[in-house]
Amino acid sequence: SGLRVDSVRADGGGLAVRATVDVLGRSLTATGRATVQVERGALVITATRVTVPDLPAGIPAPDGLAGRLSFQVPLSGLPFGLRVTGVHTGDHGVSVSARASHVVLNEKPAGALTGHR
After folding, report:
1. Cβ atoms of 31 and 46 closer than 8 Å
2. What CA–CA distances, in Å, run from 15 to 8, 71, 91?
3. SS3 content of the chain, % helix, strand, coil (to 5)
4. Helix or strand (DSSP H, E) at 108
5. Average pLDDT over every residue of 21-50
6. How do residues 24-38 score in pLDDT, each as one tens digit?
7. Within 10 A of 21 (CB to CB), how many other CB atoms are there?
8. pLDDT value, residue 111
């Protein structure tokens, strides 16, 4: 309530988070840095150093704003039994690595017809 995450983008080895927050009846932009890690089958984005630059002088940022800008992206249901093993932020976004065991890849898709028209 009163908060909408507008964007999350790679920024210098971390993430930049931008959101719209309602403060005293005004919609203002909040910005912050965030870290990303893998926990219990989800990407966990944790916001830190959140500021609301356009707040009137003397008005503090809403309590718990960093916590409200933090969220999880579930990574369940990946094909081939993949398990996420790591995450890295870089210039082009977030890269996720995964691992699977005993995966059989067929030369032709299952059910494909061969030699027939």
Report:
1. no
2. 6, 13, 10
3. 5, 55, 40
4. none
5. 87
6. 788 889 998 998 888
7. 20
8. 63
